[in-house]
Specification:
single chain, two-stranded antiparallel sheet, alpha+beta, Beta-Lactamase, 4 helices, about 80 residues, 2 strands
């Protein structure tokens, strides 16, 4: 199982596509180098943050990076949808 996890981690990390993974509670658990390049955000900055969701009490993208989501803070919609 450990070998399979290492193999999967290598695929994710070396993908040219930005990969961003959350758990069932929208907590960031993984992001790869391409994600860093595309967004300008470091993995260390986003790991553990919750992605969106009105009323969340934990640190999330809108609160941590308000300059990246202008006008979205009131709706708490970091994806701009």
């Amino acid at each position: 199982m450990e070998e399979a996890n290492e193999w999967l981690d290598a695929i994710i990390e070396h993908s040219f596509d930005g990969i961003y993974i959350t758990d069932g509670n929208a907590n960031t658990i993984k992001a790869n180098r391409a994600y860093e390049t595309i967004t300008g955000l470091k993995k260390s900055e986003v790991l553990g943050l919750q992605y969106g969701g009105a009323g969340r009490k934990r640190d999330c993208f809108c609160q941590r990076f308000p300059d990246r989501y202008p006008g979205k803070k009131a709706r708490h919609n970091p994806a701009g949808i």
